[in-house]
TrEMBL record:
It is found in: Cell membrane. Keywords: Cell membrane, Membrane, Sugar transport, Transmembrane, Transmembrane helix, Transport. InterPro entries: MetI-like, MetI-like_sf. Its main location: membrane. It comes from Streptomyces wuyuanensis. Residues 94-286 form the ABC transmembrane type-1 domain. The keyword Cell membrane applies. It is a multi-pass membrane protein. One of its GO terms (biological process) is transmembrane transport. It holds the Pfam family BPD_transp_1. This is Multiple sugar transport system permease protein.
Length: 301
């Protein structure tokens, strides 16, 4: 005769309670570990985010409250953005900036792709020297050549007061764009291009049909880099377009707007938010391709 022992209900409850407590302790330790690991990243994120929060909150304040000790708006003045938008010349600055950034980006990327492909895939004497010359142009500050370039565009071609002296040179390639695209194309195995040539593709068709689809992350990255550069450029429009208000961009027009509204800091901050917003939106929409392109351009040299 055998006797079956059953645990007491109190013992079962104690075991279950102990298991729940262990799970809660494990979750608590995991949360503390996550905070310890990511605390520096969270602190850095807050450090970089706070200026944007300050600009936005100031943009929706009244004139009397802006730049006071009170950091939270009493009333949300969304009409500040409408006031800035209706400022004479603001739409013209938008149109000029879109023309400069959009057309400049297209020309720079389209003209740099063939050069990067040739430096990455062609084997010719002096290829290393050509790459060194491309990199050397990146080390030359634009201030060094601004005087002869201005004399050429303003005196010889009579294009002062326009944005064309800033846009047209991009049709002849950009050193930084060429460098990044070339670094990425070096990571594409040569077996792909050799297989395309065996199938009867020439160099141009190989570049368009094989290399460019595989280089989309790098192309997206350099396009974003160039778009952001043109969008935020202040030095170029100041040199070539300052004498003609109809050719001003947002970066240069914002300085004029700030001078006209020296005491209206809420309107100045509203204009700043409206200028920053498109760039932030574009970056977050293309963040995946941007990060992938920047990461892969340094894999092989």
């Amino acid at each position: 005769m055998t006797t079956t022992l059953t645990p007491a209900p109190s013992a079962v409850r104690t075991a279950r309670g102990g298991g729940s407590a262990a799970r809660r302790g494990a979750r608590r330790r995991a949360a503390l570990e996550w905070i310890a690991v990511h605390s520096l990243a969270v602190a850095a994120a807050l450090f970089f985010l706070l200026p944007f929060v300050f600009v936005f909150l100031t943009a929706v304040m009244t004139d009397d409250q802006a730049l006071t000790r009170e950091l939270w708006p009493h009333t949300w003045e969304w009409g500040n953005f409408a006031t800035v938008w209706n400022t004479p010349g603001f739409l013209t600055w938008w149109r000029n900036t879109l023309l400069y950034a959009g057309l400049g980006t297209v020309l720079a990327v389209a003209s740099s792709i063939p050069v990067a492909y040739a430096l990455a895939k062609f084997r010719f004497r002096g290829r290393g020297l050509a790459m060194m010359l491309v990199i050397a142009t990146m080390m030359l500050p634009p201030q060094v050549v601004v005087v002869p370039m201005y004399l050429f565009w303003a005196k010889q071609l009579d294009l002062a007061g326009t944005l064309w002296p800033l846009i047209v040179p991009f049709a002849f390639g950009n050193a930084f764009t060429i460098f990044l695209l070339r670094q990425f194309m070096l990571t594409i195995p040569k077996e792909y291009t050799e297989a395309a040539k065996i199938d009867g593709c020439g160099e141009f068709r190989t570049m368009v049909r094989i290399v460019l689809p595989m280089a989309r992350p790098a192309i997206a990255a350099v396009a974003l880099f160039h778009f952001f550069y043109c969008w935020n450029d202040y030095f170029g429009p100041q040199i070539y377009a300052s004498e003609n208000p109809a050719a001003w961009t947002l970066s240069y027009g914002l300085e004029s707007f700030k001078g006209a509204h020296q005491t209206d800091w809420n309107l100045t901050m509203a204009a700043t938010v409206m200028i920053m917003a498109p760039v932030i939106v574009v970056f977050f929409l293309a963040q995946k391709a941007f990060v992938e392109g920047v990461t892969l351009t340094g894999v092989k040299g």
